[in-house]
Structures are given as C-alpha cells and as structure tokens.
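Objective 1b. Sequence-to-structure analysis of Phosphatase PAP2 family protein.
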Amino acid sequence: MWEKIQQWDRELFVYLNNLGIERYDAFWIFVTDPRHWIPLYLLFFLFFFLAFHWKKASFSSLFLLACVFSTWSFTNLVKGIALRLRPNNTPELTDLIRILQEPTNYSFFSGHSSTSFAATTFVVLILSQKTRWIYLAYIWPIVFVTSRIYVGVHYPGDIIVGMIVGIILANLFYFLYVRSGRRFI
C-alpha cells in the first residue's frame, strides 16, 4: 500500500514538474528563495504592531517566531528520520524531470511548506478578528510551495504533509498563545 502511494506521488510529481515552461524558470527560482520574502515577513510583524498595543504586538511576534522555529526544528527532525531522497537526487527520475535546484538534504516533508503554512496560519488566527483581508496571506504559502515542485525538489506528498503539519503546529501555538497571554489579549 505504501509503495503504491509513493508511486502515485512520484507520478503526480513528474506530471506537475513537466508542466513547467522554460520562460518562467527565473520567476519560480526567485519565488522559491525564502530571502526574497523578507518584506512579507516584516509586514506580518508590522500588522501586529498596527493592530495591537506594543506589548501584545511584541508578545504575538515572539510567539510567531517560536511557532516558526519549532516547526522548522520538527521538520528537520522528521527529515533526518524519514530519509526520503528529493526528486532531483533520485536517479530514476533525473531524465524525466526538470531540475532547477539541487539541494542535497532530504525531502520528507517540505520545510518551505510547513514553516510558511505555520507562519501564515498563526498570523491569520491572531488577526482574523481585526480584518478578514488577512486570509489573502494564504496566497504566499500556496505560491511558495508550488515553486518547490516546479524547481524539482519536492513531491506533492511532501508539500501536503508539510502544510498539514504547519497548520496543526500553528493551531497548537495559537492555543498556547491565548492561554498564556490572557493579560495582553
């Protein structure tokens, strides 16, 4: 059963990766680099300081950082246990796919996916009572994780599991945030 799921995951990856168009490669390589999203990260913190007094904004910012760091740490722990090769490092796929990046660490599950969905979900949970527009922030992780398939470094299963883990951890940190920050909230 597990082999069948992995086969479907590989086949879906090959299909999606081959939908790529060469003239858009530079865009997707740009999008997949977390450093290019620094202005968005700063905007998230700015939203906290615009929506709340400085104590609650600082408290929210610290919890956001803790949520993202914990998600990143958990992701790397699982990668070290699962040891799933990335598509770009899988010999039987190299002739079938477009490879635009060549990281050498492991694939399962996507750190881009888990951390971006954890950050976005945490921010949305905190700010959704202030503005419904905050849900547009989900555009970022969707584009961000799509780039991982496009550049040839993650299977769809890696992305989906990363999304789920990020959302779960964000909800856990939000629960802890509400419980521990009652005097700020």
